[in-house]
Amino acid sequence: MVQDAVLVASELATNAVLHARTSFAVSLSRADGHVLLQVTDASSAPPQRAWRDPLDVSGRGLSIVETVSQAWGVDNSANGLKSVWASFPVPPAGDSGRAVMP
Prior knowledge:
The protein is α+β, with helices and mostly antiparallel strands and 102 residues long. It has a single domain (2-89), classed as Histidine kinase-like ATPase, C-terminal domain (Heat Shock Protein 90, 2-Layer Sandwich). Helices cover 26% and strands 29% of the residues. The protein has helices at 2-20, 61-68; strands at 24-31, 34-41, 71-76, 82-89. Strands 1-2-4-3 form a four-stranded antiparallel sheet, with helices on one face. Strand 1 (24-31) and strand 2 (34-41) form a beta hairpin. Helix 1 packs antiparallel against helix 2. The longest helix is centred in the N-terminal third of the chain and has 19 residues, at 2-20. The radius of gyration is 14 Å and the shape is globular. The chain starts with a helix and ends in a 13-residue tail after the last strand.
């Protein structure tokens, strides 16, 4: 779970830098058996999945987010901020969720 959350945080932060072009914040919270990761920026434009040629070196971020997270979505606030979020299941009791390097 930790490796997946780090990957998704990187993808969503990269999207904020490349597309929102505003400052952004990353937050994590835990509730109801899952960890919620949010990247919030000041762009109201929703993220858009890019359909790219298989040889392109970019454009797969949202596909990665969808593949490795339990669920993901976008929330827009009344003050113009957008939060792209992804959730991950909490590891079973006794499992720290820490990445183990081979």
